[in-house]
Amino acid sequence: MSNKSSSSTWAITLFCIGVFMAALDNGIISAALTTINSSFDVSANWGAWGVTIYTLGLAISIPIVGKISDRYGRKKLFIVEVALFGLGSLLVALSPSFGFYLSARFIQAMGGGGIFIIGSSHVLSTFPSEKQGKALGMLGAMNGVGAILGPNLGSFILDITDNWHFLFLINVPIAVILIILGSFKIQETKEPSVGKLDLIGTILLSLAVLSIMYGLTNIEGTSLLDSLATPDVYGFLLAGIALFTGLILFNRNLEKRDGDPILPVSLLVRPTYLLTLLIGALSGALLAGMIYIPSFSEQVLGIAAEYSGYWMTPLALASGIGAAFGGILVDKKGPILAVFLSGLITAIGFVLFPTWIDLKWQFIISSCIAGLGMGILLGAPLNILATERLEKDKGTALAGLSLSRQIGMTIAPSIYAGFIVRGFNQLPSLFQSDFSKILQQKMEKADISPEAMQEFQQVVSNMPTTGASSSADYSKILEHIQDPTLKEVIQSSVDQITLMAAQDGYGGLFYSTVVIAVLVVLLAIILKPIRSRGLQQKV
Fold first, then answer.
1. Which of 25, 301, 304, 527 is the most exposed place for a label (fewest CB within 10 A)?
2. Is pLDDT at 170 greater than 80 in this prediction?
């Protein structure tokens, strides 16, 4: 093996480990949020800031790290990012107070946010074009599998250790090993640049991203439109848009003076890049849909809550395979076909959730199809599209793509949660319209005795309202029922009504992901001739 080949192998291996470590931490905390909140004696609302502050840190660090790595070198920035992430992990594990814990989470995010960008930029700068897709597919696989397995692994570690601190301590030795090996094994790369670092642009970009992401995190899950009408949402969104507009004007002027802006305006006038950003945002929305699969398995399939996270494993493995396959497909057939197929396969996988799944084996097959489609989109095709025909600013282009995906992941849960809430809000009407029929059918099959039937009628007549219209009402009935057969029949009828509400809510969620996946297909079709014209133009 030549020295160049050996260096490339070491680089992609170390980047993959770093990406996997950072992606894991993005979801691993969800398994321990309740435990962490209890240890610091804070409410769930305050505890959610452990996730929010990490999201804000990622949003700020992604575009800045992309630009700085282009200028000062990807090897240097990789080591700095891993060191920050390792330090942040150690500080989180040793946090003596909740405020300290939040600060440490922010340091973690500033380190973890840029690892995937740096690794992708390094691949695009050092690997031959015919091998870039495969390498980017590997990075995408680690990013996707890590993010999906995060809650799963978090539950596993918490079950074994019964100590949330270990969720973060395991990052420290991995970070140390990556720093040591990275110092010796990764080849330094950077892009040509001119002028001084755009400090004013960096501040404007940071404030704009912070404002927009903070406004998005204030969106409540019950109603997207109502949330957008609140000052904590629209105020920060408008401020972010104003800051972003000021940044574009400032950077356009800087480009005219041959400066080196933090956000090259030339990127934003490229139709291919803008459409790629839109697809990136949609891919983030699709990723957010996967967050709800454990709760779907629990509320629709009846899987115990403590095991629901483990049912993400087929999806995670399939997404890893999909990312690797997507990379190979990009090398062989180009990125447009990969994007088209990813949207099509993802749509097929997600449409099976509300239309086909009744049994666990059907759930596994549907998860694998959706995961395969999502995996194709995670790694190579969008990264290739975002950086095509760029002689410099590849890190900046990838950072914009990653930020757009993060925005999609932030907005989509509010839409999805609205479907679930509306589904369960139908419980009273479902009890009024369908419960009596379901209960009667089950009673006939169970052959309820006259004595048990008399007992049921007596309990119902003693209720303070005329008839029961919720699961809570029937829980009160069950408390007074003595006959075990009757109690089982009533409980199974209540469960069936609850299942109907859950199916309706999750059905809306998954149908919306199908629409998003179809949009990805349509955008791939639109992008094909636009990209072809761009490639024919002089670079």
1. 304
2. yes
